[in-house]
Structure formats: C-alpha cells, structure tokens
C-alpha cells in the first residue's frame, strides 16, 4: 500500500517535471496564419492548369482527369482553336467536392493539370469553391518545365506540320515513283 | 453443328463459320482488326492468330489465322497458348509502329477498337525508336473528319465503302508503307453510307465531324435506346447527350432492321434538336399580329383551355412525325370525328392502299434483313437510296448475294471475302428498277426502266399478267414494254424468293396497285416472296393505322368555319400543302394551338405555342414501314441543364390540356398508361403495349442505366448554376434512370440496350457481346412487335390500269423526287445536312431541255396551280419526255401528278426560290 502511494507520487511529480521541461523546447506548432506553413513542392493542394513552354494552354480537353476523378468534381468541354489545338471551352472544378487525391494529375497525358502546395481555399459561401478556367489557369509550366504535347503528337497544328513532330518522317506521297 | 475444342474445353458451334466468328459467338475474347461480321474475312491483319492442333496427341500445333480457318468438326485450338499470345503481341507492336501519340486529341479515344485490342493483347511499351510514317489529311465534307496518320492499314474502310456499300470515291492508294486511304482528290465522300466509316474504322482515321466541334468521350455521354425519326425504316439508334445537347448518334444493333449500319441522314441529321431557336417556353399571342409573350406552364394551360372551352368546335391535326401516343392524346382531346392525321389526302390515299396491300396480297412484308436474302428484286417507282436509304443498302446486298450462291456451288465458305468477291465479279442477282431518274442502285441492276409514273404502273400490271394469266392484261402495251415485262416475269419466277418493292414516293396509287398485282400473282403461283412498301415519314405507317381525316378536310372545316379552334401537333402544314390554302384556314380559326419542337412557319402563326419534346427528350412508339412497332426512350431531361426550359412530351401537354379543359385536377400521367389507352382505342395497334418493356421492368431488381459507369463530372457539370446538386431527374415513364446507377451489363439478356459496353470492349464491336451469335439477334430478342401480317383470303386483282403516259405540248407533269439530304422536314434544319445537300434542281429530259433551249444550270420557272418555283435545271438523258422532276423538301411544293408550265427565268437574280 505504502509502496503504491510512493510510486504514484513519484510518477505524478515526474510527469509534472516533464511537462514543465517542454516549455524550454523548440515549438512544434506554428502561429498560423501569422507564420506561413512550409509545404513540400509535391504537396497535393489547390489544382491549377499550366501552360506549355510556348505559353499556350497545355490542356487538350481529353477528359482523362474528369474520368479519373473519384468524386466526379471535374467537368469540361472540348473546343478546337483556329490553329488546330484542342482546348477546354470551359473547365470547372468543384473544390467543395475535391478530395485532393491527385488522380487527375496522374491521369493527365499533357502535364496540364497539377496540384500545388496551397491549401488556403476557405470560403464563407460554398458556391465560391466552384473554380472556372479563369481561376485555374496559371501562366507558367508548373512543375514540368519542358513537356510539350504537340511536339510528340501526330496532330498537325499551326507552326507544326505533319512530319515535323519528334521522330516523324516526311508525309508520304503515293503519287511519286521514287523508291 | 460442329464440336470444337478451345483450350481443352468442348464447344458446339456452327460448322459453317470460321473460328474467329465461332469463338466470338461463344463469348471468348480473340483480338482482330480486319474482320467484321458484315464484311467477312480477308486475313490481312494477322491479329487473330491462334494455335491449331491436328489431333489429341499433337502437342506442337501450328499458328493459324482464326478468321481464315473453318470451324470444322473436331478442330482443336488454343487461344491462351504462349506462342500464340506472343505472336499476337508482336503483331500489334508492328501495327503500332507508326501509330501517332494522339489518343488525348483523338475523337475515337474511349470507344476505340485499337485501344481495346492493344490492352487485350498486353502491348504497353513502345520499343521501336525510329521514325513514324506520316500522311496529309483530306477534307472529306461536312460529315467525316480524316486523320490518316492513325491508319493501321486493315483495309476495312475500302471493303465497307466499295464492296459493301457500292461507293466509288474512296480507295487504297499505294502499298505497304507508302499507302493512303482516301479520295483521289479532296472532296465530299459521295456515298450516303459514309458515316459508317466512323464505326467500321477500328481506329481514329475516320471520325464523326458533326460531333467533333462539341466532342465528348463515349463514357461521358448519356444514352437511351432510340429510333431514327428521319425516315420510315425504323433504324435503331443510340443518341448520346452531354450538357443538355445531343452530341452524337451511334448505331444501335437490331438483328432484323439496321444491324451494323445507318445512313448519313440518320446519323448526322440530329442537329435540329440542338437548334438555339427552338421554342423552350410556352408562347402566347392573344392576336396574330401581337408580339408573343412567354408563359409559365400553368398559365399557358389555363389560357389554352379557356380558349378551347369557349370555341364552338375544336379540331386536331396530328402528325406522321409524332409518336402514336401523342397522336392518340390529341384524338382523345378533340374527339374521333374531329381528328385529322395531318397528311395530305393524296399521300393518305397511298398509305391506305399500302396498308390494304400489306394485309391483302398474300405475300408477307420482309424485314430489312430478310430483304438481303431475296434473290430477285423488282422495284416500282422508288429511288430507295433517297427515300429509305437503309432498305437500298439491303437491296444492294440482295443483288451481291449472288456471289455467295456461286461460292456455295464451289464449296467456298461465304465468309472468305476475297475469294467470294473474285468469283462473283460483276454477277448479281437480278434487280429491276422502274423509276424515271437515275438511282444510286443502277450499278447492280439488271435493267432500269426510265418511265413516267403511269407507265411504271403499266409495266407493273403487265408483269403481273405475265406471271399469272388471270391478272388483267394491259391494253395497248408497247411491244418493248411487253418484252421487258416478259423478261422481268421470267426472272422473278425463276427466283427462289422474289421481292417486290414499291412505295408512295411518286404519289401514284396506280404504281402501288400494280405492285400489289405483281405480289398477288406471285402469291397465286405459290412463290415464297415478299412485298415491301416504302412510306415517307417515321410514323406514317402508324398514323395510317390509327386513322383520321386527311389534312385538306381539317383546312376546309376551318376555312368554312365549321370549326373555330385547331390544335396542331408537331406538324408544319406549310410543308404539305400550298401556303395560301393553309393561311386561309389558319386566318379563319379563332384559336390556333401548336405543339412543336421546331420554330416552323406554323408555329409562328399560333396563338398558343407549347414547346414539345423532340425524339431525344420524349418517349413514344413509332410504326416503321415493315409494320414494326418500336419504342424510343427519352435520352435526357432538358430542364436539368437549363432549368428555365418548359419542354414536355406532346402527349403530356395534351393530357394536361385536356384535364384543364374538363376542369379536372391535372394528375400526371405516365407513358405506359397512354400507350395502353392508345392500344385500347385502336385495336389494330393492340400489340404496341408489348413493343418494349414497361416502366416496371427491372434486372436484378435494378432499373437500367442511361450512363456508362465511368460517367464523369456529376458533381461539377451543374455547379456553376448551383453548388448544391439537385436530385437526378426521375423517370416515371421507362425502366431507365438518368444516372449511372442501374444495370448496364450484357450477361442478362434484355431487348432495350441504351449503349453497348462490355469489360474490355469499349468500341461498337461490344455489340458482339449482346447477340446470340456474332451478327445474329439480340439475345433477348430484337426489339419491337410486327403489326402488319398478311391475312388469308382470296384477293382480287386491281383492274384500274392507267392509260399510257402522253406528254403535252406546253406542259410538263410534275414528279416529286425524294432527296436523302434536305428532303425531310426535320433533318433539313440541321447544319451539316444543309452543307451536304446538293443544290435543288429541276430534272428535265435532255430532249425537252433542248426544246426549251436551256442547258445545265440555267434557271427555269415552274408555274403550276400551287404557285411558282424558280430552280436551275439538270438535264438527264434517260428521263422520259414530258415530265419534270422536282426535288422534295421545297416550299411551296407542287403536287405530284399535276401539270406545270416551264419557262426560262428572265433575270439572273434570285427568284422566289424555295428553301434548299
């Protein structure tokens, strides 16, 4: 009985001591929002649409992000520009549904859609969480600096004719007799 | 029957097939490219290699191409064999050497046979590091986009286009790597079946250009089983919708009607559903000259009911392009004795003759598929490619089937396409066409008789007399025509299954009676034949069975003020009769209520316009020209994406209007109840209740899904309107849901399939999973019920034989010539069809043109009782003298058979020209 009382008292005092010693340690928490949160570059936060090295929209409206999205919060419509490029006429992400899983980024064949280290998206009204293309499109290439889909695709666009993509031969001419 | 062993398992198969056909019919997955159920085997792509063993003791085996090997009794093969798998993986790797990195920007992606086969074969890494072959594309017209880089040289396109559909302007140029599939020079693909290239091509070389501008992947489209409304054949289609717009029409397999192929009018003529100027809310004008105001549903119904209640007598004008249910509800609203079918009297008389013949000539009506199995065809007064294109394609197959007969005599299997074609050359089963102008089937005909309508009838009567002496003889028959009649009669009698085709295109009852006489004569000679009669519009057959007064009657009632209010259902009267007469009638009416989905000239004259649903937004039943009642189902709810729309099915509007008129509480009504009422009210249509399963149909307790299970964007597509998603629209009318939730598989047989998808099969080739055998019938049976069966009895011959045609000095007899593009009321409101339509021309015999001193392109004024029309002339050497062909689909349209004067247009400026 006596031993138990002694053991208990010592344990209590030791705990008090340890807690007290924490006052002298380095803090784990941040005084957010006064202090910014350091996020790793591959953090999965707010989604952006990037541009290719030419400064043109990377998104070709292939719909793969939308179909990969497990909560179906991406919707878009394909359009076609004068120069032959496909682009999204509208591109809408309902961030009130988004779970930031990154499946869209993984599915994207052109590196257009990317998740960024930003989670500061709170709104007072849910409707404000619906982002349109204007809200999503940034002016740079994001994490992938070099990829240019139309350089590898067979589709001809203005400034890149048939046969001018990577590893492409000149267009064939069936009317020639030369071997 | 034959027993084959596949990977150690025994299967019973049809021994006449090849191994690929047999394996696919058994549900086994074998990859393939060049083979197609309708085109046979050529063994070009080497993709369907399997290992064949000689007997039980053979362990080495040898690789064979499944599509080129008969499924003979005792055949032992292995699909899973390592060597065979490796071979197939190598083949696809070779095929992919030149394939561009295009899938994200390719309209085929997501329903691509090449993608499916690549995944099935397991090829997933590109090892080839050298350069890819590239090609320049061609502009192939408003329907088809061309991206030649994606070609894997399977040759399916030219085999379909040239060998199956008889097209001449698409070819393969060059060989091996120096190859091109296209036209000899840029230009519109001429074949009216070119649209099928989008489904026949296993990759994205030929894609649907009408879809491309507003492109959506197949997995994102909402589908429903629907019917083509662009002619009377009743082809089954799967329209796909996204964001409240119809985006695409895909073929829906029906084992007896369209099978794998549609015509371009049906596939690309849907644009009228998406028109911006469609009425979307009720419109009201208290007086004709007032500007219209839009109303809410209740206000519109109240005002409409008030006006109808205060009217002395209300009559209804139905429509052959509306469903049976809508027409029936209109008849219920106005009463049986105040209902007009909305069809002009002349056409309605032809429809009545056709219906009587279908019952009473002793020969059955063949389905379009059965048409292909007839070995002699006699076509009276129809240009099938223009009036019922899918039937025309079937007749072409009937002619070409001679090859298979010849092959069978030499023990060459019917599916060995190259051998069969080489053997057949240009030998065809006899097809005789009696039609004034050239037709697209002329290249397979034994003879075409370019005759005026009355002479076509006389030729028919003469043939009937040659077949059976009891049939009335034609007095004063020209010797040449008598010779022709003897020849036709002999060839028809020599055939095992002769077929007579006729229809109302030329508006001549005499031609129909002549066709009836030929059919009766063959029935009396106990021939297994068929009689197919072509109607003009989607529900012409059904409306003729429903019955009602002709349109002229309705106009007379209004003009003479025996009725002062009229309800017009989905019918632009100005397309049917001269404008003056219609205007007089509508001006006389105190109240005009119009229900339509298009802003037509008739709509503009309505006091109350109610926005009706087009085929994509409504359910209903149509009766096709073979007497098949089929149901079409609503594809999407227009109010989901555009909450401001007040579009309802016509039958729903009319039900509500009737309830309001009778001051009943407006209780909603469901499709099944309306269909039942219609069947009860019209005993001839009693079977339409069984045309499709009712709204309570379930599979595994589930409703059926309209959307593929990968349907994306559900929580974002409407988020710009409101971030809180509403409940998906509920559908009380059909067993389908507006959702991905519900059954969409293939393992439980069902008749109504919204879209074909099976694991690993995203392309239209997935239909093979839904059929009892490849190219056979849907496993649950093909949709629809047949209503027109021959009734036993003794049938008398028609005896009113017209006099031979005699031209007049200064007048020409008008023939209305159907047109595939631009000749039908709704599809000619779609931009791609207008772009494809050839300019309207008057067709004149070269002799007559010389007499008038005009040549091709000169403008002529055609003046008749119904108004005048200025059009350029096209001369045709074989056209009989004294007649002039006027293209259908123009307003004001002259009446077929009337006499008109022709004169050169005085100025070169635009005259009072009809709508193209």
The count of helical stretches of chain A stands at: 5
| Biggest sheet strand line-up of chain B | 16-15-26-25-24-17-18
Binned strand content of chain A:
15-25%
Name given to the CATH architecture of the domain at 348-541 in chain B:
3-Layer(aba) Sandwich
Write the layout of secondary structure elements.
The complex is a heterodimer of chains A (179) and B (916).
Chain A: H1 2-22, E1 47-49, H2 64-68, E2 74-80, E3 86-94, H3 103-107, E4 113-115, E5 130-131, H4 133-136, H5 149-152, E6 168-171
Antiparallel strand pairs in A: 1-4, 2-3, 3-5
Chain B: E1 2-6, E2 9-13, H1 19-25, E3 49-53, E4 62-65, E5 76-78, H2 82-95, H3 113-121, E6 132-134, E7 144-146, H4 156-164, E8 171-175, E9 178-182, H5 197-200, E10 206-208, H6 209-212, E11 222-223, E12 226-227, E13 236-242, E14 245-251, H7 264-268, E15 283-284, E16 293-294, H8 297-309, E17 314-317, H9 324-334, E18 339-340, H10 345-359, H11 368-371, E19 376-380, H12 384-387, H13 389-400, H14 402-409, H15 417-424, E20 431-434, E21 447-449, H16 453-467, H17 479-494, E22 498-503, H18 509-524, E23 530-534, H19 540-546, H20 551-559, E24 565-569, H21 579-588, E25 591-596, H22 601-604, E26 608-611, E27 620-623, E28 628-632, H23 638-641, H24 650-661, H25 671-681, E29 704-705, E30 736-737, E31 785-786, E32 812-817, H26 831-836, E33 842-845, H27 846-852, E34 859-864, E35 867-876, E36 883-887, E37 899-904
Parallel strand pairs in B: 1-5, 17-18, 17-24, 19-20, 19-22, 20-21, 22-23, 24-25, 25-26, 29-30, 32-36, 33-35
Antiparallel strand pairs in B: 1-2, 3-4, 3-5, 7-10, 8-9, 11-13, 12-13, 13-14, 15-16, 15-26, 27-28, 28-31, 32-37, 33-36, 34-35, 34-37
Helix pairs in contact in B: 8-24, 9-24, 9-25, 10-18, 10-19, 14-15, 16-17, 16-18, 20-21
């Amino acid at each position: 009985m006596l031993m138990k009382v002694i053991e208990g008292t010592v344990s209590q005092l030791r705990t008090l001591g340890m807690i007290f010693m924490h006052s002298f340690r380095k803090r784990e928490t941040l005084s957010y929002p006064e202090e910014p949160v350091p996020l790793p570059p591959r953090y999965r936060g707010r989604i952006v649409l990037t541009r290719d090295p030419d400064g043109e929209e990377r998104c070709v409206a292939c719909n793969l992000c939308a179909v990969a999205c497990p909560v179906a919060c991406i919707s878009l419509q394909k359009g076609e520009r004068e120069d032959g490029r496909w682009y999204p006429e509208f591109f809408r992400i309902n961030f009130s549904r988004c779970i930031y899983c990154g499946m869209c980024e993984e599915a994207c064949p052109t590196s257009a859609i990317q998740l960024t280290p930003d989670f500061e998206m709170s709104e007072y009204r849910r409707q404000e969480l619906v982002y349109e293309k204007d809200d999503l499109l940034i002016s740079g290439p994001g994490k992938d600096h070099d990829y240019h889909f139309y350089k590898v695709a067979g589709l001809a666009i203005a400034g890149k004719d048939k046969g001018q993509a990577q590893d492409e031969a000149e267009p064939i001419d069936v009317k020639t007799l030369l071997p | 029957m034959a027993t084959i062993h596949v990977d150690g398992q025994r299967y019973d198969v049809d021994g006449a097939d090849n191994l690929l056909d047999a394996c696919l019919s058994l549900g086994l997955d074998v990859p393939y490219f060049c083979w197609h159920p309708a085109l046979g085997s050529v063994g070009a792509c080497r993709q369907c290699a399997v290992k064949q063993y000689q007997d039980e003791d053979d362990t080495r085996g040898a690789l064979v191409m499944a599509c080129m090997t008969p499924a003979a009794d005792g055949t032992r093969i292995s699909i899973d064999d390592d060597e065979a798998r490796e071979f197939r993986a190598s083949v696809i790797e070779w095929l992919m050497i030149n394939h561009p990195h295009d899938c994200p920007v390719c309209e085929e992606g997501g329903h691509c046979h090449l993608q499916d086969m690549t995944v099935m074969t397991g090829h997933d890494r590109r090892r080839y590091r050298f350069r890819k072959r590239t090609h320049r594309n061609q502009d192939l017209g408003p329907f088809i986009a061309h991206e030649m880089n994606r070609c894997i040289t399977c040759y399916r396109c030219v085999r379909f286009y040239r060998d199956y559909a008889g097209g001449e302007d698409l070819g393969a140029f060059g060989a091996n790597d120096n190859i091109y599939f296209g036209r000899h020079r840029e230009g519109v693909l001429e074949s009216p079946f070119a649209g099928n290239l989008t489904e026949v091509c296993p990759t994205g070389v030929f894609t649907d250009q009408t879809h491309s501008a507003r492109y959506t992947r197949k997995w994102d489209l909402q589908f429903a089983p629907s019917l083509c409304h662009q002619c009377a054949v009743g082809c089954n289609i799967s329209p796909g919708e996204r964001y409240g717009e119809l985006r695409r029409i895909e073929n829906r397999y029906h084992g007896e009607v369209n099978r794998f192929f549609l015509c371009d009018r049906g596939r690309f003529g849907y644009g009228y559903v998406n028109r911006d100027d469609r009425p979307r809310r009720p419109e009201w004008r208290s007086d004709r000259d007032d500007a219209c105001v839009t109303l809410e549903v209740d206000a519109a119904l109240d005002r409409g009911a008030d006006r109808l209640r205060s009217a002395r007598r209300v009559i209804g004008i139905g429509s052959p392009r509306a469903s049976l249910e809508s027409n029936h509800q209109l008849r219920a609203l106005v009463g049986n004795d105040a209902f007009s079918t909305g069809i002009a009297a002349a056409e309605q008389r032809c429809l009545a003759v056709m219906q009587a013949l279908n019952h009473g000539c002793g020969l059955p009506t063949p389905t379009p598929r059965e048409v292909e199995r007839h070995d002699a065809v006699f076509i009276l007064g129809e240009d099938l490619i223009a009036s019922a294109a899918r039937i025309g394609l079937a007749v072409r197959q009937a002619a070409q089937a001679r090859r298979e007969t010849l092959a069978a005599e030499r023990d060459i299997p019917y599916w060995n396409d190259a051998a069969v074609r080489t053997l057949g050359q240009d030998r065809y089963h006899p097809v005789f066409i009696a039609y004034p102008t050239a037709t697209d089937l002329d290249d397979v005909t034994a003879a075409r008789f370019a005759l005026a309508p009355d002479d076509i009838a006389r030729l028919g009567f003469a043939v009937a007399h040659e077949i059976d002496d009891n049939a009335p003889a034609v007095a004063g028959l020209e010797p040449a025509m008598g010779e022709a009649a003897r020849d036709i009669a002999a060839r028809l009698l020599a055939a095992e299954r002769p077929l007579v085709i006729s229809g109302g295109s030329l508006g001549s009852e005499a031609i129909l009676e002549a066709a009836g006489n030929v059919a009766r004569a063959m029935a009396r000679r106990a021939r297994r034949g068929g009689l197919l009669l072509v109607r003009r519009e989607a529900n012409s057959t059904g409306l003729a069975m429903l019955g009602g007064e002709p349109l002229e009657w309705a106009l007379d009632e209004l003009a003479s003020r025996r009725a002062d209010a009229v309800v017009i259902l989905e019918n632009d009267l100005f397309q049917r009769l001269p404008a003056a007469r219609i205007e007089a009638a509508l001006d006389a009416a105190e109240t005009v209520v119009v229900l339509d989905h298009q802003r037509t000239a008739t709509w503009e004259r309505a006091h109350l316009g109610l926005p009706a649903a087009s085929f994509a937004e409504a359910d209903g039943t149509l009766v096709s020209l073979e007497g098949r009642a089929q149901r079409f189902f609503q594809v999407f709810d227009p109010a989901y994406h555009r909450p401001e729309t007040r579009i309802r099915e016509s039958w729903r509007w009319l039900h509500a209007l009737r309830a309001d008129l009778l001051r009943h509480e407006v209780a909603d009504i469901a499709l099944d109840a309306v269909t039942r009422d219609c069947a009860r009210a019209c005993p001839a249509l009693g079977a339409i209740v069984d045309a499709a399963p009712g709204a309570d149909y379930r599979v595994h307790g589930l409703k059926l899904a309209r959307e593929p299970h990968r349907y994306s964007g559900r929580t974002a597509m409407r988020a710009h309107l409101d971030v809180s998603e509403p409940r998906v629209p509920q559908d009380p009318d059909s067993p389908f849901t507006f959702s991905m939730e519900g059954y969409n598989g293939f393992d439980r047989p069902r008749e109504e399939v919204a879209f074909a998808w099976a694991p690993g099969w995203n392309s239209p080739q997935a239909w093979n999973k839904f059929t009892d055998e490849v190219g056979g019938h849907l496993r649950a049976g093909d949709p629809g019920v047949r209503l027109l069966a021959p009734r036993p009895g003794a049938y008398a011959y028609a005896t009113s034989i017209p006099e031979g045609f005699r031209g007049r000095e200064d007048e020409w007899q008008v023939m209305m010539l159907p047109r595939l593009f631009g000749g039908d009321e709704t599809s000619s409101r779609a931009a791609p069809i207008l772009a494809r339509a050839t300019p309207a021309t008057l067709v004149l015999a070269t002799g007559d043109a010389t007499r008038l001193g005009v040549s091709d392109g000169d403008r002529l004024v055609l003046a008749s009782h119904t108004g005048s029309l200025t059009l350029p002339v096209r001369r045709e050497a074989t056209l009989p003298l004294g007649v002039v062909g006027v293209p259908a689909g123009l307003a004001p349209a002259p009446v077929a058979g009337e006499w008109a004067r022709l004169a050169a247009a005085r100025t070169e400026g635009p005259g009072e020209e009809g709508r193209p």
